[in-house]
Amino acid sequence: MSNSAAKRPAGWELWWGWAVVAGVLLVGVLLFGLHARQTAQTRQSLMLMRELREARLDLAKGYLHLSQAGEPGGPYTAEQGQVLLHQALNGFESSLVRGEVLLDPLAAVEGLRTRLDNWPRMSRPTPADMVEFRSAFHAVEKAADAADAELQAGLRRQTARNRLEFIIAATVAMAVLLVAGGLVFQLQKNAVRQARERRTSDDRLRGLLGDMMEGCQLHDRDYRYLYLNEAAARNGRRRREELLGRTVFECYPGFEQSALFAAMKLCMEQRTARRIEEEFVFPDGKSAWFELNIEPAPEGIFIHSIEVTERHRAEAELRESRERFARAFRTSPVPQALGRLSDHALIEVNDAFLQLFGWPRELVIGRTPLELGLVAPEELTRVREELAGREQLENFQLEVRSRIGQLRTVSLGLARIELQGVPHAIVTLFDITERRRAEQAVAELNQNLEKIVAQRTAELQSKNRELETFTYSVSHDLKAPLRGIDGYSRLLLEEHAAQLDTEGMRFLQAVRNASVQMGQLIDDLLAYSQLERRSLRPGRLRLSAVLGPLQAVLAPEIAQRGVDLRVNVPDIEVLADPDGLAQVLRNLLDNALKFTRDVRPPVIEIGGRGENGAFTLWVRDNGIGFDMKFTDRIFDIFQRLHRVEEYPGTGIGLAIVRKAMERMGGKVRAESAPGRGATFYLELPTP
Amino acid sequence: MNAAPPHLLLVEDNPMDVELTLQAFKRRKLTNHIDIARDGEEALAWIPRWEAGEPWPAVILLDLKLPKVSGLEVLRALKAHPDLRRLPVVVLTTSADNQDVRSAYALGVNSYIVKPVDFDKFVDVAAHIELYWTVLNAPPV
To answer: What CA–CA distance (Å, rounded) separates A248 from A294?
Structure first.
């Protein structure tokens, strides 16, 4: 049962109570009135009767006066009797008239008055007069008796009627009162019961309200606190005792200016519920937000209040945050757009986006890129295909068109997002037109460059081939005449020795030596230039595969010279080109043999040691050695430390060693001291 | 087989080399007749004669660097010939270039010898050639 429905019977019941009281009073007044009227009537009837009887007495007195007048010693005179009788008669007549006597005694009265008028004045009445007068008098008396009787009868009738009326009226009134009283009693009983019930539920409600988190307060029509719970007091920043029984204006000075009061006032006056969310500023300057339900109540108004300051702050923060992000989105220098995936409609775009495409915002929002011609249908299809089954796209290049038809290349980034359950896409565009242009220019340049490089390489290769041909010619054409010199000088020496003297023989020998030297020089130069041209391919190489053949080749010379050759190399694999390493070792051993020429006994040691992923191979001799200040020069081409006649050589051997080691990714260095032999170290990578 | 000792064909343009070669063979007391072709064209000119029935040389000593037609071209022509490809060819040249060596062997040369500058060694080479190709080797026909 709702509040307002529960209250209605109470109002009715009150009304009914008053109606019953009014009814009782009315009945009482009516009965009293009736009684008064009846009493008045009765009194009037009795008064008439008394008047009539007094008139009869006066009549009788007058008659007596008149009849006895003239008698000496009598107290009355005839005149007096006449006057008295007249007076009595008038009184009697008026009584009759007033008594509305139905009989007609007036005729008798007139008769008597006539007689009386005719009564002889100052003279003695005749007996006839007397008789006549007496009979008239008697007629009046009779009439008077009749009137009296009639009055009495009327009085009796009236009394009886009055009694009956009163009884009936009282009975009816009693009945009515009984019925109404019973009704009221019943209503009252119900009201009492309901009141009791209401009181019980009110108590319960109050208890509940007291524990509620929401504030509940009841104001009377003067905005006085009739009730408030703890939460309401908390909301009001006061203790309950401070507020109860006082008006809001007393408790909160300036309250009448607040929007809250305006709402309370409206509710109070118009008796309609209102719901408001308002900020309330307390007298101390602090403020708080409240959500208020103000409802009319019988006592005044009832207010249900919830403090929503925190929520408001959160909402305000959210609003601010949204604003911040919206502004960031709007003013971002990177073109961005938010679109619906279902129909591609653009929901939001930023300024940079508009600037890129040259469209005004109002024409863009709600329309699709296709409608605006921002992108060709096939380009859009490309994007859609790329996006299929993916959450996002990155650095997807496509061509877009501005409002004036300018084509731009953009790098598109796209991410799917759901907004209120609807799939959307946030799109970021980077204008890479300039970059693309630059890239193209670079690519073209590169292509040109490659063309140039290819051309130069071809030229170089052709030059190289020429050089090779030249080298080939050198080897062939220089050696052929040399072979002639050697061959003919040999023939001369062997077959024509008889024709030559000793000096001639010596010259011839010098020619032969020179030709050998030149042959050697040509061979070394060829080897060196071949190293330049050839690609040395370092591969897994077992050291014994190189050292074995080398020893075999050199064995005759070693044996002949009596060289103590000590080979102490672990047979492991290194990374080297077999021809290259063979050449290097050959040259080093040739060197060692050459420079131990004058040492007794010549000792040559080949050793090796692997460490840290590299292998060091060395060739050590106990020959003449060299000064370490020449350690760099000895590896340069044509650099020699000795005269040819001391130690023959071309000055190319060690240059070949260094070149070959470099080409194989290795290194060579030498340690020596004059007269203390020399050690050449070769560092080779291992597999 | 002919009763006369097998002859050789020397293809060599350098007269000095021709003479020294002949001298070297003479030193070895080689009695075999040596025909000389002074360039590639002359060498190729022998082919119709052999086809016509003239006796084949025991071996052809072929220089690579020749006027008109190079030694490698001569070698290619010989080795492409249905019959003459069986004729032993020894390249005798100054060039020790790997490219030449590979090309020669790819064309089917029987031996590749670098001419030594030293005359004594050259005499040794001549001796080896004589011994191997005219004495030890069984000729193809």
So the answer is: 15
